[in-house]
Design brief:
heterodimer, A: about 130 residues, alpha+beta, OB fold (Dihydrolipoamide Acetyltransferase, E2P), five-stranded mixed beta barrel, 7 strands, about 35% strand, B: about 800 residues, 4 domains, about 50% helix, about 20% strand, flat
Chain lengths: ~130, ~800
């Protein structure tokens, strides 16, 4: 075996070891129910915005406090708190992925990822697009 | 359908569609001809096939150009009968962004890719090269697949490709409007371009990035030609300038994406380890590894197999990243919006048809590819370049592995979520990688190929390392890093900067012609130094001081990076006194004028004063689209953007809740409120009003009121009273800033007075919510990037000159 192969194998072994230690960063998508049990770790919950419940953001009261209600895949609803302004285009959101952890009955989100249908299916907008006769 | 539609411009689309078919057919003809030429023994027949291939390819290139021109004409003329123009542009779009419409849609980006391939292929056609047939054969095969993405035809029920020339009425057949022959007169405007793409970076970044992607096909097809013709090592010298070109362009494209994100997106940085960013970074890492092993082979005859792996893998990874970003599979993990045109199947076929043969050929000929049996010297340049390339490969594997989580989920039916803190996940692996790469890139230049003077090597490296330690410590004097890996990275960048600078000036004695590698490595080290300082020492200065709950400590609390600024009320942010002074509208954009002042702590005088205009586009389709504004200093950037503004469209408070006080006053009288006094100037008989339609028989009167606040500001209000059918109506005027609602309640002609009703509410103040971040020494990042690219260019020029010199000697 050549020296270079030995060095190469050592590097690969170290790298694999390292990647394995990073595996703890991966997690499963959770639900609010399963996140409730563990408050030390961050979870990611996929779900939908509950549109008929109140979204609260009053920047004059606190510009870094936004709450909304979200329904996870098991249809469990939970209030989500985000310590930042209401994200752009939030009202249009359908699917949401929140990252954070439970605090009491609420979910404290570090980040919110949104999927807005308008950017995907523009065809949906066409109904209102051709202008009314004038 | 027998409706004869009016006003459509069908010719451009027909020409475009015919061009798509021609581009597709001629790429097939070209690939057949080129491969026949490559595998025909008879020289004359081979040459004539080659000629056929060349002509077919050039016709193909012309067809591609014709597609682009047709599409451009359609977009430029706002012919909204075409779906592409309707969905990606509108009339309000400034001419400079018309090009961006091209790459908003998938079809346009495939078109761009195909265009660059055609350009590069055409350049290769005119170069004298005996490998041309196989190289261009591979090119033509790639073009077949790309052209098929634009076909938009149904074969056995499967939709192949998606054409940019389809008509709106065909895309939406169910809409009743298309039953009318004159439907076009109702479609006044298009859907418009995503406001995020309305930015000058988005005009230049995609073409550069796609040129980068397209150019990776050159090393791939050269390597393929080596395998197909079994002339395994015969292509490595000719490919090197192209590989360098590709590395430079792709690197520029990636960094331009970072600059775009930094300048116009609001995630507060230039790099976020987003899947889409990763997808373009990974091929670049592998390409850089390939360039280095290619160099090793040219100098020592070693590492040819590795070079094959790297060059083939680069293009395969470009294909893979196309699949990732275009198939919609990243949906849940990326902030980038991608449409799935239902072409994922086609993308998989494209990927498989090119990568499987490449992998198979490499496997078949693996043992025939020449290699050197003897061990290399441990302290030689080739040994450490190989190790460095291996590190690049491992880095790429780690990034790809995590980025591909949605793919693993699809393949294995799992439900894994990507790391919840992506940035720290990638950083914890990539920081050690960066350290190793920096140390290797700096020290391996001091080693020679094959045999080196080791005494000299250790002496120089020792001295530079000894100097780097105090330099790193000195930098930390201004701001300490909190983690061990960052200390080491800082040392490695300092070492990299100094070792390469020293090499340039003392070893090469400033001989610029051969300085390419040292310049590129120097720039790379500088760039990483900029990355390290600007991200590790990045500081949010807009911590909320008005808010509540400050005592409690949350983990999510770190999000509290936004500050409320009332109009004309100064707020302190670190050294800055910040005042929001008002907005100005240039529809669809609103510019928020924010003044910054820095006072000298001793004299109290203003040291510095400037205004930033972060803007927001209130987009009817997407809501508030904020655009940052940044103050650039030599040593730092102050980056700001608006995160929220009052919703001005919101309905006013319920009228019933207002408590009016009536005042019977004459002209010239003054009424006092809690914060102002109102003087009745005069009454104005009006015939038109923006508040109500006034017909000829009506009597309409406005009271002109001059309002002065206690702090000296003036306003005017004109409440309206009018009589229609012998009944009196009033329309209030509201001054939001003062919380005043003014009503002309009645006019009493008998005693020449009026009844003025005044209601006071809490003043509705104008405000913005702002976030401000300081990025120290971010200029090192941009400077380092530019220097790295210059290094590439120097190397390309050097190789080119050498080639011309040898050609002249023959």
């Amino acid at each position: 075996m050549k020296k270079i192969h030995i060095v190469g194998l050592i590097i690969i072994a170290v790298a694999i070891g390292f990647i394995i230690t990073l595996a703890s960063d991966y997690s499963q998508y959770e639900t609010f129910t399963s996140a409730r049990g563990e408050t030390k770790k961050d979870f990611q919950v996929v779900g939908y915005l509950v549109k008929d419940k109140e979204m609260f953001y009053d920047p004059q009261h606190d510009p870094n406090y936004f709450t909304f209600y979200m329904k996870d895949k098991d249809s469990v609803q939970c209030k989500v708190i985000l310590y930042s302004p209401k994200p752009q285009d939030f009202d249009r959101t359908e699917q949401i992925v929140v990252t954070g952890r439970m605090k009491g009955d609420d979910f404290e989100a570090k980040s919110v990822l949104m999927k807005c249908p308008s950017k995907y299916k523009q065809d949906q907008l066409v109904v209102s697009q051709p202008k009314a006769e004038s | 359908m027998d409706i004869k539609f009016e006003g459509e411009h069908l010719l451009a689309g027909q020409i475009g569609q015919i061009s798509v078919y021609s581009a597709f057919s001629f790429s097939i003809i070209a690939s057949i001809a080129f491969f026949l030429s490559a595998f025909t023994r008879d020289k004359e027949t081979a040459l004539s096939w080659k000629q056929t291939g060349r002509i077919a390819f050039l016709i193909h290139a012309a067809a591609v150009l014709s597609i682009i021109v047709s599409l451009y004409i359609i977009i430029q003329n706002h012919w909204f009968e075409y779906y592409y123009a309707w969905s990606h542009s509108n009339k309000a779009l400034p001419a400079k962004y018309l090009l961006s419409c091209f790459w908003e849609g998938q079809e346009g980006s495939f078109l761009l890719w195909m265009f660059w391939n055609a350009v590069l292929g055409a350049i290769l056609i005119f170069q004298k090269d005996e490998k041309q047939s196989t190289v261009l054969g591979v090119f033509s095969v790639v073009q077949i697949f790309l052209a098929s993405m634009l076909l938009g035809v149904y074969i056995f029920g499967y939709k192949i490709g998606s054409t940019p020339f389809s008509l709106l009425r065909n895309e939406m057949q169910n809409a009743p409007i298309f039953q009318r022959a004159d439907y076009l007169s109702f479609i006044q405007d298009g859907n418009g371009l995503n406001p995020l793409l309305q930015n000058y970076w988005m005009v230049i970044h995609p073409p550069i990035l796609f040129l980068g992607f397209a150019s990776t096909l050159i090393p791939f097809s050269f390597a393929m030609s080596g395998l197909l013709t079994k002339n395994f090592g015969g292509w490595t010298k000719d490919v090197l300038p192209w590989s360098l070109f590709s590395g430079a362009v792709l690197g520029t494209g990636i960094m331009m994406g970072g600059a775009w994100a930094y300048e116009s997106l609001t995630f507060g940085g230039y790099w976020a380890w987003d899947p889409v960013e990763n997808a373009s970074l990974v091929p670049w890492l592998i390409l850089i590894g390939g360039i280095h092993t290619n160099l090793v082979f040219n100098k020592t005859g070693r590492s040819l197999r590795t070079t094959y792996i790297f060059y083939l893998l680069t293009f395969i990874l470009v294909l893979y990243s196309t699949f990732l970003t275009r198939s919609g599979i990243l949906g849940e993990t990326s902030v980038h919006a991608f449409t799935d045109l239902g072409m994922s199947g086609q993308l998989v076929v494209y990927m498989a048809s090119l990568s499987l043969p490449a992998i198979a050929l490499l496997g078949i000929y693996w043992n025939k590819i020449p290699s050197v049996k003897k061990d290399e010297q441990v302290l030689s340049r080739e040994f450490w370049i190989f190790i460095g390339s291996l590190v690049f490969l491992i880095s790429a594997i780690q990034i790809t592995f995590t980025t591909s989580i949605p793919v693993w989920n699809k393949l294995f039916g799992t439900n894994w979520a990507p790391p919840s803190d992506a940035i720290s996940h990638y950083n914890s692996f990539q920081i050690p990688v960066a350290i190793v790469v920096l140390l290797l890139a700096a020290s391996s230049l001091y080693l020679k190929f094959k045999k080196s003077d080791l005494k000299m090597f250790w002496k120089r490296i020792g001295v530079i390392a000894a100097v780097s330690v105090p330099v790193a410590v000195g930098i930390e004097f201004f701001g300490k890093f909190s983690r061990v890996d960052l200390h080491i990275l800082l040392f490695a960048t300092a070492f990299g900067v100094m070792a390469n600078a020293y090499y340039l000036f003392t070893v090469l004695r400033g001989n610029m012609r051969v300085s390419g590698p040292a310049v590129a490595h120097f720039g790379f080290a500088l760039m990483l130094l900029g990355v390290l300082i600007s991200s590790a020492k990045k500081q949010t200065i807009s911590f909320n001081s008005r808010g509540i709950d400050f005592g409690e400590s949350f983990t999510a609390e770190q999000n509290r990076a936004n500050m409320l600024l009332y109009r004309n009320e100064p707020v302190k942010m670190q050294d800055y006194i910040v005042t929001y002074v008002g907005d100005s509208a240039a529809p669809p954009n609103y510019y928020y004028k924010v003044n910054y002042e820095v006072f000298d702590s001793l004299t109290g005088k203003v040291k510095e004063r400037f205004t930033l205009l972060p803007n927001a586009q209130i987009n009817p389709k997407m809501g508030l689209i904020a655009n940052p504004d940044t103050r650039h200093y030599f040593s730092k950037d102050l980056y700001t953007h608006v995160t929220s503004v009052p919703d001005k469209t919101k309905k006013k408070e319920d009228q019933a809740e207002l408590k009016f006080t009536d005042h019977t006053v004459k002209i010239g009288d003054t009424v006092y409120t809690s914060n102002s006094y109102i003087r009745v100037e005069h009454l104005d008989r009006v015939t038109t009003s923006d508040k109500v339609n006034i017909s000829g028989s009506d009597l309409a009167v406005e009271a002109v009121l001059a309002i002065k606040t206690l702090d000296g500001k003036s306003y005017e209000a004109r409440p309206l009273y009018y009589i229609h059918d012998y009944r009196g109506f009033y329309f209030d005027d509201v001054i939001k800033e003062l919380g005043l609602t003014l009503r002309l309640n009645n006019i009493l002609p008998e005693n020449q007075s009026i009844v003025l009703s005044v209601a006071e509410t809490k003043p509705e103040k104008d405000f913005i919510v702002l976030t401000a971040i300081v990025f120290p020494y971010i200029n090192l990042l941009w400077l380092g990037t530019v220097i790295t690219i210059i290094g590439f260019v120097i190397s390309i020029v050097r190789i080119w000159q050498k080639k011309r010199a040898t050609a002249a000697n023959q």
